[in-house]
Amino acid sequence: MRYKQRVVLGGCALCIGLAFSQVQADVVSFNISDSTTTWTPITYPNNNNPDPSNDQQTGSEEGDVVGNVAHPSVYTIFANAGTPSLTDGTLGFRIRLGADANPPGFKGAAFVGIDANGDGALDLFIGVNNSGTPNQIGLWNPGNGLNTSPSTTTIASTPLVSYTETGTNYLFVPVTTTNDPTVGTATDIDGGGQNDYFLSFSVPFSDVVTQLSLNGVTNFNQNTSLSYVIATSTQGNSLNQDLNGVPKTYDASATWASLGAQSVTFNSAGTAVPEPSSLSLMVLGILVVAGIRQYRSTASKGA
To answer: Do 238 and 138 sit in the same domain of this protein?
Structure first.
């Protein structure tokens, strides 16, 4: 009887573990043009896939990050290179923007700020800077301020590492049913009369690990918890255009988290680490009740 009870309780515990686990398929490599079904939406605590339309501080719709609950504004992807190492591979991001203003091509800057140690301050920026010459993807240090809010954050003008934009690490294309099979007819979320665009870019993950280590964030790898702050800019040393996740008017001295501009906690491999969802809790409740009933039934039969 005791053996049967242990089997029942062990099976229930396994079910509970499965209910809370988030299975993330291993991606060995990816193409920068892969559809959004391959990418992971970057979500936020109070608004699943935010960004209000037409809320850029300055500039054209090309700098307006757009998205809603059905159509995420930002995504990430990670390829582990198929090796046992936790510090190699490729890290990518995709940002949905309101237009491609004339002349064609992305002409501003877009940055992903990383809080890599959970202290609320941004430790490194990954991004695209096409606001000057040359166009480049890069890794940048934050400015000398606290880097905990819009008013305390700047970006170093010179990248720590830069990469030439190629067909393998950079893409700026219209949103279509090919690159986003869920889009349907929602190709102009902001209603500006122009097709939305995806800005996609990627960097070697080993460089991210190295630069974070030089900034004092050691032992960082693809399983380390982190969060993101994402914004566009008209220039390469600030976040002066559209801060993803907040409306046009906000308190620039407020922290990223209090503004709602800081994503939920992820790891670089794209697995979110939020509080258990209501669905998970419901599944857990069902499994617990089922386990208790099975346990009672087994116990009564063995008595």
So the answer is: yes
CB 114 within 8 A of CB 126: yes
Residue type, 173: V
Please give the model's pTM, rounded to 2 decimal places: 0.82
Cα–chain-centroid distance for residue 168?
20
Q: pLDDT tens digits for the chain (303 residues)?
A: 444 444 343 444 434 333 333 334 468 999 999 999 999 999 988 766 666 676 576 777 888 999 888 899 999 999 999 999 999 999 999 999 999 999 999 999 999 999 999 999 999 999 999 998 899 999 999 999 999 999 999 999 999 999 999 999 999 999 999 999 999 999 998 888 999 999 999 999 999 999 999 999 999 999 999 999 999 999 899 888 889 988 878 899 999 999 999 999 999 988 877 544 443 444 444 444 445 455 455 555 555
Measured CA to CA, the distance from residue 250 to residue 253 in angstroms comes to: 9
Structural domain range at position 291: 1-22+275-303
* Claim to verify: residue 254 and residue 109 sit in the same structural domain: yes
